[in-house]
């Protein structure tokens, strides 16, 4: 696995501090992006939380996921959450160390009071003393929230910065890209009131047997089952919802999102509605299967148009809490389909997320480029190599014969444009984890000069 070392630099450690005006939750920020450009320690909010105990528990849940590995749990994991200020809300996001669970806390306008919400993205320091302090926040305790230091603090704080150096797998970045593609295909499958939500979630197994279950809506409750059924939502590795236990006492409702039920396990999103905020955990289709290998972004990465379209669309983004593809299409002079492909491509550099509750994309800005995600994707690299070696022989109807070593795979194109293949990858996943390398190579070879340039890393390649 390719790894880089990510360094988070903070002026001081995040803490719950006592002052003359009461207690303040000071979340320290690392280098981030703002409308004015890069900032070493951006400040996004200063005001009060309207539900302090709820927010403290929800932040701990996001931190729990960042510190957890649900697959091979003996390995250490610790990544500081990402926070994005979208002007009307704060979003806190994290991935588990195994990249199989994505957590997001949306603190909405109703959850914040007395301060203007800025725009931008950064990491926030979450340390063990802070976790202990958050666990002691009471429901009646007023709590001021500061995301980032005051300007005066930046100029007067003495001493060395607090640094954290953590190995950052390339799959963590790819997970951001894959989750927004998967979530965009989800629909609301069930909504149950607080009492039933608590009963259902507390009844789930907590072991690590990596079992796959389904949840079937039954009136105002959910019924667990070991087999898929009409209207069911997949619940792969139910023990991975453990972080939701922290907020159950504050829950108003539970919403579940996912694709239509089938025989195969699928990803799903589990959202607890809280006063002024929402906490969502999205689970990969299996505890041993991280989001990074789902392959949902491959078609967009292999598209010659999407590279240029993404550059154009990126200029139009401004940390909006809801990104409307139709509006972007009008502004950019593109079709909605091309805008969606461009958004998917931007997601490979962490610039796009998807909010299932609002069925809308949102903008964030992480310090990565799409070229890094492409370079770390083995299927795309293999497809480009096949095209460069002249191994793809197009056939009538948009299919191809692809020669790999001493054997040939046949790729066929259906009437709706979908590709299938005779290879073992296709036989195993049937498109459930994106296209195989032979289908990708067919698309690249069939795209004319631009596709050939993309396959060879030339002018059409992402920069």
Helix content class: 25-40%
Poorly predicted regions are 447-463
CATH topology of the largest domain: Proliferating Cell Nuclear Antigen
The 3D shape can be described as globular
In short:
This protein is an alpha+beta fold. It folds into two domains: 1-293 and 356-367, Proliferating Cell Nuclear Antigen (Box), CATH 3.70.10; 377-463, no CATH class.
What report would you give on this structure?
The strands form 7 sheets. The chain has an 8-stranded antiparallel beta sheet with strand order 11-7-8-9-20-19-18-14, with helices on both faces. Strands 2-3-12-6-10 form a 5-stranded mixed beta sheet, with helices on one face. The protein has 463 residues and is an alpha+beta fold. It contains 14 helices and 26 strands. It folds into 2 domains: 1-293 and 356-367, Proliferating Cell Nuclear Antigen (Box); 377-463, no CATH class. The longest helix has 15 residues, at 52-66. 28% of the residues lie in helices and 30% in strands. α7 packs across α9 (336-347). The radius of gyration is 23 Å and the shape is globular.
Any chance you could write out the topology, listing elements then pairs?
Layout (H helix, E strand, L loop, with lengths): L2 E8 L4 E5 L2 E6 L4 E3 L2 E3 L5 E5 L2 H15 L15 E5 L3 E6 L5 E7 L4 E2 L5 E5 L4 H7 L8 E5 L3 H6 L5 E8 H14 L3 E7 H9 L9 E7 L2 E5 L7 E4 L16 E6 L9 E7 L2 E7 L14 H4 L2 H13 L8 H8 L3 H12 L4 E4 L4 E4 L6 H6 L2 H11 L3 E3 L5 E5 L2 E7 L5 E3 L2 H6 L7 H9 L2 H9 L7
Parallel strand pairs: 3-12
Antiparallel strand pairs: 1-13, 2-3, 4-5, 6-10, 6-12, 7-8, 7-11, 8-9, 9-20, 14-18, 15-16, 15-17, 18-19, 19-20, 21-22, 23-24, 24-25, 25-26
Helix pairs in contact: 4-9, 7-9, 8-9, 11-13, 11-14, 13-14
Protein name: SWIM zinc finger domain-containing protein
InterPro entries: Znf_SWIM (IPR007527)
Keywords: Metal-binding, Zinc, Zinc-finger
